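User: Show me a protein chain along with its predicted structure.
Assistant: Here is one chain, sequence first, then structure tokens.
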Amino acid sequence: MSCNRNCVNKKLCSDSNSVDQRLHLDNGLFLNELPQESVNDLNVNTSVLLIEPFYGGSHKQLVDLLTKEIPGCVLHCLPAKKWHWRMRTAALWFSQNIPHCMKYKVMFVSSVLNLAELVALRPDFAQLKKVLYFHENQLIYPVRKQQDRDFQYGYNQILSCLVADVVVFNSSFNMESFLSSISSFLKLMPDFRPKGLDQLIRPKCKVLYFPLMGGEQMGGSSSAEQEIVHEVPAGEINEENLLVDTNGEKIVKLNRNSPHPETESDMSKPLHIVWAHRWEHDKGPDLFFHTLYQLADQNLEFKVSVIGETFSEVPEIFEEAFSCIREHIVHWGYQQSRQEYVNVLKNADVAVSTAEHEFFGVSMLESVQYGCYPICPNKLVYPEIFPAEYLYSTPQQLAKKLRYFCKNPRHVRTHKVMVDWRQFLWEKLKDQFIELLSPADKESNDSESC
């Protein structure tokens, strides 16, 4: 079967009988780990056109999952590099490089793409059911000065909404912040401002949370099967709450989503903090590292893993932090495989977000899924998902929480996190995505060919 995945470097597409075939770009930025059988032949059962101009991070995770789990999907994508230019120019590139195919019934695109431009350049796409998915929105993207805001990014997303048939957001915060900001955003225009666009767009909108992968999507047992069944309320560990393993060592019956119980000696090990976000300014690395500097200056014991994707420009604070807290570092940098990433989360105690720009927070929910205690800002999307216990409102509150946990790591390791992450599992959301990607016209035309 020939590969129909429209990569930037077409010469990489070749015939292969290998189920584990992988496609690489020459620059090494793009890796497709989908089984070959999940990439459908253009002449067999093709109905859904997936387009992702920024194939990285959660954007990659979502379209890979859809391609693998929902029959009939064909993915066209560009590497996750220079998102500013992807928003400006990807539509023209895709218009020239996506083959014409009359079998497509549905188009699913992320909001990085200027859908209005693409449909204008490719009139054959106009008849498709057009689904626009917002991982983030540009109307409230944080900028240091208002004059630094590029008006075109947000304007393009508004136009895309007007062209789309269905507009999907990954959280209520994302949807409401976008819709409520349209009018004020358009006031940046000097004159001839359109009116009532939010009222035109809102009826098309819905919230469909980003799906977390369970064990089935990772090729193993489900995360629920890995949980500890013994539960002990925080602060109530005593001799009655201990088991003895085959080596005679005492094991605490944990009340958390940890894959294994820990020995009594493990309970006193230094707190392990994980920061699993893109290495960019909008994720607030300055606040995170300066908080760690305070902990180190107070001679508190802790370990830290700083993971997440990096791009061409990395904030200077990362180099500074690596030098300042080097003796505390366990993992530093992007984890090359999904399993490596999950293993870091499983071995950490506390996951911290210091984000200034977040519309769902995949890594924080995944951290909870694999046993971490979450600490998040009391803003953005986080109050929608996390109870108040796990939120902080000031840098001082963040430092206070971490200081306490450094002194009392046992509290974290015996705490049952009260976040219902299971509601976000793919198994729970799959039917909604299948319905979303179902053609508006249920009648199929098998006589049509590409």
